[in-house]
Amino acid sequence: MSTDFDRLPFQPEEYLARRDALRTLMAERGIDACVLNSTENMYYLTGFGSLAYGATSLIVRQDGKAIWVMRLTELSNIRALKGKIWADEGIGVPDGHDYATVLARTIADFAPGKAVIAAEYGTIQTAVSAFVRPKDDAIVNASGLVEHLRRVKSAAEIDLLRKAGHIAAKSCQDGFAALREGMTDTELAMVVSDSMLANGSHRPAKMPNVCAGPRTARAHVTWCGAPISRGELVNIEPAASVFDYHTPIFRFYSIGKPSDRVLRLFEVCKEALDEGFARVRPGMTSHEAARIFESVIERRGFAEWMVTRPAYSIGGSFPPGWGEDNVMAIRRDHHAILEEGMCFHVTPCLYEDGVGCVGASMPSVLTANGFQSLSGDEVVFGVK
Asked: At the fourth CATH level, which superfamily is domain 155-383?
């Protein structure tokens, strides 16, 4: 029986508008049916997002009809949402049966004749995607179609990201309040994670990154049970989730005064963040915006330790991560145009071996007047 816990994060009209926007793109490209397999894209279009065991595909026809092909037991999720999502019909694949055979048969039945079929290949790991090619000339690459629609967030999406941002900020504040000499990074991670859940976060796509000392220079490492010493650099990076819309935030702390080098790294990153907030506007290219952040760091002589882009898109996400780099990013040599309603984790960071990772982070929505915070807190280096 359906309950209020099954409710979708947005009204049906928003999902139908997303579906119809995809249909328009399909018509422009002469595509009769799309085979989607990105969890994020299927969630964006329908409101159904599940960590299903086994393969899951959504076949969307140009006339707006759709059908799921998924493991038989996972089909229970679609039955529970019958009448609540526009794509509420599915084919179940029993355990031990060949998924590819069932999928191929369903596509042939659902889009018969000489239909032009497009399938997503962009969800394959980058390292191998270049080697994967359609086996039939009728199958074209649908990668990027739904991602294009996901770049600009609706007001309802931004509201969820803002709620998640405030939860994430509170978890960092609670972590800082609990920080004490000798506590382990694991104990600190427990505080941060407990705070997120206690303050309303849904299931996060990834646990927080929490660690201390020079080890923080290793990207995305997290707790290992190491005690935290006085003066050590402490990294806390959680992403809270509301209906799978994730807002990450990165904060930097220490017990007692950190090294002068750490403080200098933070000052440079904070200056870059402030410059970006002052100057980045819709209508710029991604490259132009990136150079605003990067030029500050370069002028201050810290370019050697700038090894990542200044900002990446955020939105609805599922494991293994919370970012939308494949949707949009602010990075050098990327010439997509920035638009109002795009949401980013803006985080100019510096990684120096032997010192650690230091940055200045603010999850933000891009408005006509520039970036606006989604977390409502201040960017400071916290010392206690």
From this structure: Creatinase/methionine aminopeptidase superfamily (3.90.230.10)
Quick: pLDDT tens for 260-307.
999 999 999 999 999 999 999 999 999 999 999 999 999 999 999 999
**Could you tell me the two tokens for 360?**
């200045």
- Phi (first) and psi of residue 356, to 5 degrees: 135, -170
Cα–chain center distance at 109: 35
Residue with tokens 């397999």: 37
* Domain ranges across the chain: 4-149, 155-383
CA atoms of 155 and 367, how far apart (whole Å): 12
Rounded to an integer, what distance in angstroms lies between the CA atom of residue 314 and that of residue 320?
14
Q: Do domains 4-149 and 155-383 have the same CATH topology?
A: no
Give me the CATH code for the 4-149 domain, please: 3.40.350.10
Q: What pTM does this model have?
A: 0.93
Of residues 383, 378, 376, 382, the one with CA closest to residue 166: 376
